[in-house]
Amino acid sequence: MKSQRVTWLLSLLTIATLLLSACGPAATPTAAPTDVPPPTEAAPTEPAPTEAPEPTADTMGLPSVLTMPEQIAGGRDVSITIIGKPADSKPEAVAAWQAGVDRFTKMYPNVTIVGSDYAYAPDTFAALVAGNQVPTLFEVYLTDPSKMIDQGVAADLTSFFDAQKLKDVFNPNVLAITSRDGKVYGIPRFAYAMGLAYNIKMLKDAGYDAPPTSWPDLAEAATKLTNRDEGIAGFSFITDGANAGGWQFTTIAYGFGLKNTDIAAPDASGKVKANFANDATNAALEYVKDLRWENDVLPRENYDWPKNGESLGTGKSAMVVMAGDQLGWIKGTYSDVDMSQFGFAPLPAGADGKSVSLVGGNIAMISSAATADQIEAAVYFRLWQQLSPAEIIAGFQATKADPNAVVGNPVLPLYVGDFETKLEALQKTYANLPVDNYTGFLNAVSSGQVNLQPEPLVAGQEYYAALGGVVSTILTDKNADPAKVVEDAQGTFQTNVLDQMK
């Protein structure tokens, strides 16, 4: 356990430097994205000795970084279940997803792919683990790879990464989160950083040429932007009392000085101790409490993740804390909304003048309960969708037929080098979001003006749930003492979560 804690701490330090050398939209447009003994390590099929294709105008010189094998599973019949199939309510997206599956199975007719529209959630996934129903290919939040590795749920993918030299392709800071003792257990799917989304016209009408750059300025601007007669809140974030509320409050608290190493970290004895009930968290809680009870700028109802995004998209909130990819969700959910009215900026700076943003994302993993043939098929399907130039182009082309498709979210790069640079340039030619509205945020991240802090990597979801409850309490009870409420929550988290860790 001690070596695992050290590895976890090193991962925290590594990802803190994420993307200071490169930044830009880099998510591919293709469809999305058990306590069991580990299987015998699956050796990847020897790649076919083919030459990389010549660059074409269509791919804008996107280099070939993946060599697909001549056969998968030695030609034996193999069936895999993968998450990421769009819901039936999105027929264009389903058609694009199926077309991709058909292209893969045409190359490898012995592979059968069964799609699932399951969306990862820690509680429902635990039920899948208990019932031995984990899909062959699944995804988890960036907080959870360590949990999957510790519990033996995720298969070791190192042999595939080594054979294909993929450690030279993926952003090493993201890849570190899914690695343990030199072994790789996951494939990064996307990474985001939190920012401040805002309605450009609302701010301009209120006399602001740019969004606020400090938390006191945000409170002042939100007061001016709030219009109760029109049902408009000046500022909003998730306040539903659940995990997502703790997640967004944490990024606010980062701006007040909270460090993710304070949340849960080993003490001198090696025992993991919680320390989030500190001055920084208390200051952030007092600030949020004032927004509700003194400034009266927050929505009068509690918002979950969809409601928070909806409030920006439908003009009910002027400024909103959100991850950059939710702008794409707004476009996909409200197809008639004019996306050019929304900007995306760094979160306001704290007292030290530094903006801080929480970094998160999704990681694809393979079930350790899968056979060697299934692991090989799932790994190559996932890598092929993300890295094949032809498949990337096919994904971009498919967006033209889908009115809800999104290209151009202000997310963070998964890759490095020439592949990342060419992918960013290619994506801009297909973007259907106003990417110029996000340049302030992306430039601030790449220049180091924004300090990127990772999510908590020990019991992160349980911590978020604890903080979500704290925020809900102080926003519904004017007399609640933030310091007392968070102190009680920390004690419960320590006893019920950290002290139970093996």
Instruction: Report the CATH topology name of the largest domain.
Output: D-Maltodextrin-Binding Protein, domain 2
CATH superfamily of the largest domain: Periplasmic binding protein-like II
Number of strands: 12
| Biggest beta-sheet profile | 6 strands, mixed
The figure for the number of domains is 2
Distance between the termini: 7 Å
| CATH class assignment of the largest domain | Alpha Beta
Question: Strand percentage, roughly?
Answer: 5-15%
In the CATH hierarchy, the architecture of the largest domain is: 3-Layer(aba) Sandwich
The poorly predicted ranges are 1-57
Mean of the pLDDT scores? Answer: 87
Description:
- This protein has 502 residues and is an alpha+beta fold.
- It has two domains: 24-191 and 360-438, 3-Layer(aba) Sandwich (D-Maltodextrin-Binding Protein, domain 2); 193-359 and 451-500, 3-Layer(aba) Sandwich (D-Maltodextrin-Binding Protein, domain 2).
- Helix content is 41%, strand content 13%.
- It contains 19 helices and twelve strands.
- Strands 3, 6, 9, 10, 11 and 12 form a six-stranded mixed sheet that branches. It has a two-stranded parallel ribbon with strand order 1-2.
- Helix 9 (243-255) packs across helix 11 (279-293), helix 12 packs across helix 13 (326-333) and helix 18 packs antiparallel against helix 19.
- The model is unreliable at 1-57 (pLDDT under 50).
